Amino acid sequence: MSRAAIVSEPLTVAALTAQLKDTLESAFPSVWVAGEVSNFSRPSSGHCYFTLKDNTAQIRAVMWKGAASRLRFDLGDGLDLVCHGSIDLYAPRGSYQLVIKEAQPRGVGALELQLQRLREKLAAEGLFDRANKRPLPAFPRRIAFVTSPTGAAIRDFLQVLSRRWRGVDVLVIPARVQGEGAAAEIVAGIRAANRLRPMLDVLVVGRGGGSLEDLWCFNEEPVVRAIAASKVPVISAVGHEIDVTLADLAADVRALTPSEAAERVAPSADEISDRLRSLSGRLHGGMRRRVLMSRDRVERAGRSRPFARPHAMLQDAMRQLDELDAAAVRSIRRRIERGGARMATIAGKLESLSPLGVLERGYSLTTDARGKLVRAMDDVSIGDRLTTRLLRGEVISMVESVNDTAN
């Protein structure tokens, strides 16, 4: 065939692309591909675009909004996926791509991955902090249980509770605990329980056992947040002992089964009775010991001298009083004698200074009409009336003359 013949019959780009498209899509109508996500983007349309790669190659991939909405985990760069889809050739760019219909993380299921990511998110917000956990009341009177009213969980709970403690009222708040819409009903039940007045003492949320998928509603974010926000202490009673749900982490108390929830929420009447009997025995024993000790003290007191010879104590006291009286009299006498001696000494001193003492020695005291003592001739004048006091009696005289004896 000549070169001219080849050129005279060329294919259009569109025709060639259409042939390639048919070939690829026919050859790879269903394919499983594993690889790592990179260059991930999700515009407002909701479709997901990214590259699926391994160590040596890569392929463009797209997941339309409908398929992406069914994923139970969030897509993102670095995620290692196993994808199922078909090969498509995108004509406007002339490139082929993998159209993914379903995907799951490689090495871990989609639910496990979603659970792990949500757990990390809520833990970072502090919803699982132990500091926020509240203790359960010792003797609750009003309990509500958000669960299916026809399930085995409520029957087991009530059976165990009635056997342990009868002094409690239980309100069942109906809610689906599995399948589509279960999470919304559980949240509504929790909120309704918090609106009840008078306020509940304890709120139980749970169901019987099941697979991870069956229990998934207790891992959904709205349920976890509703439990964490409850003003009533919450017991999570999801009957799945192996795996821990996020509801278990958010609740104040986790019970492995609804039956254990009944054991955790209320005391055992038998145990309380045994405890009371034990305390009664201890109280009786303690009182008996106190009585015996008091009796022994009374007996010992009765044998003591004050009770055995009460008159002897009175006689001793009277004797001691007499001794004290005698000592007081002697002390007073000594003080009087010392005082008398001091008074005599002082009187002698006063006597030696008294004018009367001078009179006894032959001297006299002369005063003028005003009673002023005459000491010198200048104190009187001729004609003055003077009074002279002697040892015995007085002499009244008139001054006739004044002589200066010093001359």
Brief descriptors of the model:
single chain; 407 residues; alpha/beta; OB fold (Dihydrolipoamide Acetyltransferase, E2P); Rossmann fold; 3 domains; five-stranded mixed β-barrel; five-stranded parallel beta sheet; 13 helices; elongated
Topology, element by element:
Elements lengths: L2 H6 L4 H15 L3 E11 L6 E6 L4 E6 L1 H5 L10 E11 L4 E11 L4 H15 L17 E6 L4 H13 L4 E6 L7 H14 L6 E6 L13 H9 L4 E5 L7 H5 L2 E2 L3 H8 L3 H35 L1 H4 L1 H44 L1 H6 L4 E3 L17 E5 L4 E5 L9
Parallel strand pairs: 3-5, 6-7, 6-8, 8-9, 9-10
Antiparallel strand pairs: 1-2, 1-4, 2-3, 4-5, 11-12, 12-13
How would you describe this protein?
- Residues 127-345 form the Exonuclease VII large subunit C-terminal domain.
- InterPro entries: Exonuc_VII_L (IPR003753), Exonuc_VII_lsu_C (IPR020579), OB-fold_nuc-bd_dom (IPR025824).
- It is found in: Cytoplasm.
- Bidirectionally degrades single-stranded DNA into large acid-insoluble oligonucleotides, which are then degraded further into small acid-soluble oligonucleotides.
- Heterooligomer composed of large and small subunits.
- The chain has 407 residues and is an alpha/beta fold.
- The protein has three domains: 3-107, Beta Barrel (OB fold (Dihydrolipoamide Acetyltransferase, E2P)); 116-267, 3-Layer(aba) Sandwich (Rossmann fold), CATH 3.40.50.261; 358-398, no CATH class.
- It has 13 helices and 13 strands.
- The strands form three sheets. Strands 1-2-3-5-4 form a five-stranded mixed barrel. Strands 7-6-8-9-10 form a five-stranded parallel sheet, sandwiched between helices.
- Helix 5 (152-164) links the parallel strand 6 and strand 7.
- Helix 5 runs parallel beside helix 9 (258-265) and helix 6 runs parallel beside helix 7.
- It is elongated and about 195 Å long.
- The relative contact order is 0.06.
- The model has no long low-confidence stretch (mean pLDDT 85).
